[in-house]
């Protein structure tokens, strides 16, 4: 089993995962990841700061089997339709069941 931290953009729903656990990253590291992506959006400084904080606050830590780990969007931000993530990560408020539920552990922060 491997850990990953899932970041999701509140503007376009693009997702990105970072290898490891949430406690392995400082807030500044996470803010930098969010800021890099938010440059693609036409936001003034205040809105960018709000969205950056939202991305970091809503980051979701998952523990996933090694086989499924390679399918995560680790290299870059990706559109949700182009990225594989466990169903429960994308719809944390819905009661959907993932076919990989037994191989995924999700922790919302």
In short:
The protein has four helices and four strands. It is of the alpha+beta class and 109 residues long. It has one domain (2-108).
Low-confidence stretches: 93-104
Structural class: alpha+beta
What is the rounded Rg? 14 Å
Number of helices: 4
Q: What is the string of helix and strand elements?
A: EEHHEHHE
Written description of the protein model:
By secondary structure, the protein is α+β, with helices and mostly antiparallel strands. The protein has one domain. The chain is built from four helices and four strands. It has helices at residues 27-38, 45-57, 66-69, 87-90; strands at 2-8, 15-19, 60-64, 104-108. It has a four-stranded antiparallel β-sheet with strand order 2-1-3-4. Helix 1 packs across helix 2 (45-57). The chain is globular. It starts with a strand and ends with a strand.
């Amino acid at each position: 089993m491997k850990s990953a931290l899932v970041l999701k953009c509140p503007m376009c729903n693009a997702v990105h995962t970072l290898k490891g656990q949430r406690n392995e990253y400082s807030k500044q590291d996470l803010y930098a990841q969010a800021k890099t992506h938010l440059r693609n959006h036409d936001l003034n400084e205040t809105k960018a700061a709000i969205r950056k904080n939202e991305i970091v606050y809503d980051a979701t830590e998952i523990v996933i089997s090694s086989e499924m780990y390679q399918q995560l969007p680790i290299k870059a931000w990706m559109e949700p339709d182009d990225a594989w993530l466990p169903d429960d990560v994308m719809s944390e408020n819905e009661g959907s069941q993932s076919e990989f539920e037994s191989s995924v552990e999700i922790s919302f922060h």
